[in-house]
Amino acid sequence: MGRFTQTDAVFDNEEVLTDGYTPDTLIAREDEMSTYVEVLQSVANGASPRNIFVYGDTGVGKTLATEMILDELLEDQVEFDNVSVEVVWQNCKDATSYQVACHLVNHFRDRNQEIHTTGYPRSTVHRKLWEHIEDTDATHVLFVLDEIDSFRSDDELLYQIPRAHTNGNITETKIGLIGISNNFKFRDELSARVQSTLCEHEIHFKPYDADQLQEILSQRADEAFLDGALSEEVIPLTAAKVAQRTGSAREAINILSNAGFIARDNNDSTITDSHVTKAYHQVQSGVVKDELEALPTQSHVVLYTVLSLARQGRTPVRRKVIHDQYKTIAQQIGRDTVSTRTLHRRLNQLSLKGFINLMEVNKGSNGGSYYKYEFNADEDIIADVLESESRVGQIIGQHAD
């Protein structure tokens, strides 16, 4: 008998808990879906699409809702007179505006005729895109650009697509753009000309609360696990932990899935709160590691500085105190120190990542106002990840000595 069998003590269909699974219904997003229908009704009527900007934190249903509503539109269009819709999806993660434009061109081409993502003038790539759009049989083309905040300051494509008809680049086909972003502050970084077109209509996806997360987890659990495999406290505990931190359904589902794996590995037939606690630590460690790897070492040092102050019971704390402590730590480990202004940018960066909390203290007309900072993450998880990460492990080790 081999080591693998097809028996499972907890899972009935673990595929239900994967990112690739699409549920039949999207829980707690009725308002957002209704807004989508209202905005896209123009397409169904044969009119020019309105451009949409969709934003919200990771795991709150933005992409899934967009996929489901556009699938409905594509299914319903067979009943429309003189309306044919083509949807073009492109994830923009780690890509420039120019590279995405090349990918959009290649959407309309056979594989052996695709263009490279280097070597062409930007205007040439755009011209090729307009030509393909004009040649399509569709009356409407909707471009969906997921994670468009990857563009950062290069927003030329976000200007060109919505204005292609106005600028005379396209005469027949009606085109629209749906931009999806995890960072709602990205809108503020766009040029004024892009904001006036891309953000024509906005849909905001708020984080899920604990009750909504329980409903989502129950929906998945009914299909994923065998009867009796979940103890009663598992779903409420998972929902409460995630609602307090991020409100991300993806995170909650990952924790529930990992709890099942832990139980199965231990040959336990019932998933309990202890499995959830271990799974939560695993998932959070992975999320934190991914986030920290994207930050420079100086940000790691600043984060560890705030962590050390929190463990000393000295937070919330003003920036000057953080800078003094930061200089001490940096000097002890032989690192260059940054200016107060640079430290301020690092703190704001860590605040946007959710690692620290920024609060304004207002002393009135005479006392003025200032900011204080406090740690806003699981201290043990942050410490574990910092210590396991090669560069910062040495920093913490030397500081501890």
UniProtKB/TrEMBL annotation:
BP term (GO), one: DNA replication
Transmembrane segments: none
InterPro entries associated with the record: AAA+_ATPase, AAA_16, Cdc6_C, Cdc6_lid, ORC1/CDC6, Orc1/Cdc6_arc, P-loop_NTPase, WH-like_DNA-bd_sf
CDD domains found in the cross-reference section: AAA, Cdc6_C
AAA+ ATPase domain residues: 48-209
Domain Cdc6 C-terminal: residue ranges: 303-386
ATP-binding keyword on record: yes
Keyword Transport: no
Binding site for ATP: V60, G61, K62, T63, L64, Y208, R220
HAMAP family: ORC1_type_DNA_replic_protein
Alphabetical list of NCBIfam families matching this protein: orc1/cdc6 family replication initiation protein
Family: Belongs to the CDC6/cdc18 family.
Protein name: ORC1-type DNA replication protein
Biological source species: Haloquadratum walsbyi (strain DSM 16854 / JCM 12705 / C23)
